[in-house]
Please model this.
Amino acid sequence: MDLNATKHIVEAALLAANSSLSFDRLVDLFTARKVEVDRAALRKALSALAEDYADREIELKETASGYRIQVKSSAREWLQPLFEERAPRYTRALLETLALIAYRQPITRAEIEEVRGVSVSSNIIRTLMERGWVRVVGFREVPGRPSMLGTTKEFLDYFGLKKLDDLPPLAAIREIGPESDPQSDFVDELATVLAEAADVTLDESATEEAEAAPNVVPIHQSEA
Model:
């Protein structure tokens, strides 16, 4: 099978899928039809597809779970009226908490509170876990053995990341500690950077208890 034919089948599969498709899953599509496809050739087809979208408002994105075709952030505002759900809005408190978990994991709730300078609402932790973005990864060997929190593959997928190293670089996060000013602009920067990574909106007026439901705008999403 030539490159164009392979590329067109891959494109059709990604458009039809409801979620990211792993590289092995794409290989299986050809195997199921008893069509041999070289893995290197399949990677070339994916690269060619990405190049095809370079000047368009859609893109091929590789996340932790695989590949997906999605609308570029530059076009999302134009498409929002097509969907009844409102654009994703998150409180600064939630994004600050999630950002600290992402950059400093594994981290305990007490350590998050120490950096932020305020208590972390149980509702925030529960919300992050219910959305599948955060999980308990272990227990700190100190009195009380508090839970240590870390991010999940679902977190990477939602924020369009293949791995944690793809997070926007913040060298200072490695050095922040108890001696840092918890009310400094640094924690605000964390929340802003994470919001920009997923092209979501910081809702400065919302309370910690009023978190909006996530709303991703995939290329193949249909109207409700």
